[in-house]
Amino acid sequence: MSGYFLDYHDGETLLEAYVALPATEAPRRPAVIVSHAWGGRAAFECEKADKLAAQGYVGIAIDNYGKGIFGKNNDENAALMTPFLQDRAMLRKRLLAGIEAARSVSMVDQGRIAAIGYCFGGLCVLDMARSGADLKGVVSFHGLFNAPEQLPNETIKAKVLALHGHDDPMVPPEKVLALETELSSAGVDWQIHAYGGTLHAFTNPEANAPENGMAYNALAEKRAWQAMQNFLVEIFV
To answer: What CATH number does residue 55 fall under?
Structure first.
């Protein structure tokens, strides 16, 4: 397994993805894009790309903020994320640039690309699906579910798996139902797995603020990763 950084652009904005290649002689491999949480494309997402490469996929951690741009605390993270939540058309354009960057990697099988994302990145991969991007599937880990306003959805081609903490205060039951209704109305092959007694950011070992609705849950993380693995095997057949 090996990894390298890949520069790419969205218009004038320089972005930097991390690409993890599997140790295989196969000329083309399925690719899994990793979309980052609100702090930017950091070690957490690069480690997920490495784990995916160890399983035989090309792991590509994309960058939605800009090369070298990372939040250092919650206030900075929110300041980086909020403009994209307020302008989902801008976010869609940035995400499509990330998908094109993934397609530019020579080992990637163009017909077998999926995307996973965490927190803000979970919303991002749902928006990738909503854009009509040619993806086999997307997986949202404790992501936000709210659909873009005033931005029409294209035909969703991707299968959808959402891995959700039932007690996540950022995604109450009515938002879960809204996503179910949205995806069903669009004729999407979807799954939502809700983990009981589980808060937001349950895959992040550094999440330790239950008073703010965020806490690591090792068992839910293990279950979610296994669900993702099963999903990838299914969609990449």
So the answer is: 3.40.50.1820
Mean pLDDT, residues 150-174: 94
Q: Give the C-alpha separation, 144 to 119, whole Å.
A: 6
209: which 2 tokens? 């603020």
Question: How many structural domains compose the chain?
Answer: 1
Q: Is the pTM of this model over 0.90?
A: yes
Question: Residue 55's CB: how many other CB atoms inside 10 A?
Answer: 13
Residues 34, 117: contact at Cβ < 8 Å?
A: yes
At 59 the pLDDT is: 98
Burial (0-12, 13-18, 19+ Cβ within 10 Å), 68: exposed
Identify each DSSP E strand in the chain by its residue range.
2-10, 13-21, 29-35, 58-61, 108-118, 137-141, 159-165, 190-195, 208-209, 214-215
> How confident is the model over 48-71, as pLDDT tens digits?
999 999 999 999 999 999 999 999
